[in-house]
Amino acid sequence: MTSSLGDANRLELAATLWDSEADDTLVCRAVRQETHDVKTFVLTPATPGRFAYQPGQFMTYAFEIDGETIHRCYTISAAPTRPNAISLTVKRVPNGPVSNWLHDNLKPGISVKALGPMGSFTCFAHPASRYLFLSGGSGITPLMSMARTYHDLAEPKDIVFVHSARTVTDIIFREELELMARLSPSFKFVPICEAANPLAAFSGLTGRLSLDQLKLIAPDFMSREIFVCGPPPYMAAVRKMLEETGFDMKHHHEESFNFETLSAAEQAEAIEGEIALDAPDAVRTFKVEFTKTRRSIDVPDNMTVLEAAKRAGMRLPSSCTQGLCGTCKSKKISGTIEMHHQGGIRQREIDAGMMLLCCSKPTSDLVIER
Ligand SMILES: Cc1cc2nc3c(=O)[nH]c(=O)nc-3n(C[C@H](O)[C@H](O)[C@H](O)COP(=O)(O)OP(=O)(O)OC[C@H]3O[C@@H](n4cnc5c(N)ncnc54)[C@H](O)[C@@H]3O)c2cc1C
Ligand code: FES
User: Fold this and answer.
1) Closest to 29 in 3D by CA, of 106, 124, 92
2) Domain FAD-binding FR-type, which positions (predicted)?
3) Which of 122, 150, 276, 360 is the most buried (most CB within 10 A)?
4) Is the CB of 273 under 6 A from ligand 2?
5) Residue 325 in contact with ligand 2 by CB distance below 6 A
6) Residue 156: enclosing H or E segment and its boundaries?
7) What is the pLDDT of residues 168-203, one digit of tens each?
């Protein structure tokens, strides 16, 4: 009796929306083993609260690992239709510092710091009656969030969900996707396995996604809104395939999990920087010193610190490169900057001397703790 009253209170309290500006702490409540190298971590606010986000969006987390704070982005694999908890679904990356730490250390009761939700890769921004979701490996997470959302909303959406995995035992969320396909006649799930697994039978499609396979799975794919997420070579192959068939790429949307991929904004900035470098008289150059790596570089006043550091061969953490995700957040020890962020840093962090390297240009010499 007491416990059910307690649960009712929890639900009532949870009517408050979680605001990552005001509170950045989330608590791990459950861990699920999805495949041999993929786990899902379920998180809630420390005091009950609801999350509001669009399916396909991600959060940026700050993890304390061996005395160092490391930032990474993870898609919300849960659906906003079940707003009391979010989840992240993480694949181990061989020797990857964060994914392995999460698998080995994040357990119920442990808190993590999070910022978000953020990102524009969402079906809500591109309403359509027929979708084609193409995913590879852990790139399934944003598409799973979208599929779960439409399923819960009982929206009459016609969705074809194609997932490419290495072997049958690598298919993430297989049972749930098969169940959704059984329950909804307008939802089709097609896994494709690259290689056979001698320990697990699979009678579905094999190899890498080809145009012939796509025509077989979704003969009307040319008139669908297409969302793609997976490893960069997979996404490049899909892009090429669609372009070659004359697909109208306005209806193609993709998300990359790869830190090194340059965004259009970053490319434009790089070109701008190159022009500036060719006309050195037109720009001023400042000295930027990184204390931890003991590097010192020259940064033109019209180039971001991150871009200049990349050109100097430094590997600094970054993701969105647009001041959104907070991955490149660093402590500024001295100097002045011009920063144009898009929510990836809080005012109180700026007041405490933090900056985002990807969207800050120097206005004096700088010393940065990195
Ligand atoms: C928008 C977005 C959504 C994502 N969603 C998911 C998801 O749903 N599931 C999932 O499994 N992955 C997701 N990722 C990838 C995830 O953020 C991590 O890159 C991945 O888990 C591997 O991290 P890692 O540290 O283990 O491995 P690494 O491959 O070593 O790290 C990835 C990158 O981080 C940098 N890096 C490496 N070491 C360090 C270090 N010590 N300090 C700082 N930076 C370092 C490097 O630039 C490297 O390329 C997403 C990425 C983005 C950008
Ligand atoms: S890389 Fe995302 S805020 Fe800088």
Assistant:
1) 106
2) 21-124
3) 360
4) no
5) yes
6) none
7) 999 999 999 999 999 999 999 999 999 888 878 888
